[in-house]
Amino acid sequence: MVPFYFVLFVLLTIIGLVNWIVRPHGGGRQEVFLIGTRQLLMDVHAWLAVMFMVTIVIQLVFHWYYIKAYLSQSGL
What is the DSSP letter of 2? Predict the structure, then answer.
């Protein structure tokens, strides 16, 4: 089973690359649809980033005792 934060990371990467490489940054009237989808993808990208950060914080909270034990064992 693939962890949820990995799926979010892959979606963030794909949407970010599509927005950066494929979608136009501006233009004339014929590109209004593409610019509109670029803004939509930017909004989706931002919300996925928030969800990704929340899941990482939850993972750190759930595994805090394991992290603390490992760091104390390794002398850090």
Answer: -
Which phi and psi angles does 3 have, rounded to 5°? -65, 150
- Residues 34, 45: contact at Cβ < 8 Å? no
What the block records as the tokens of 15 is: 């949407």
**pLDDT band for position 76 (cuts 50, 70, 90):** confident
Rounded to whole angstroms, the Cα distance separating 70 from 47 reads: 33
Q: Where are the alpha helices (DSSP H) in 1-76?
A: 4-17, 32-62, 64-73
Q: Could you tell me the end-to-end alpha-carbon distance of the chain, in angstroms, rounded to an integer?
A: 32
pTM of the complete model: 0.73
CA distance 15 to 19: 6
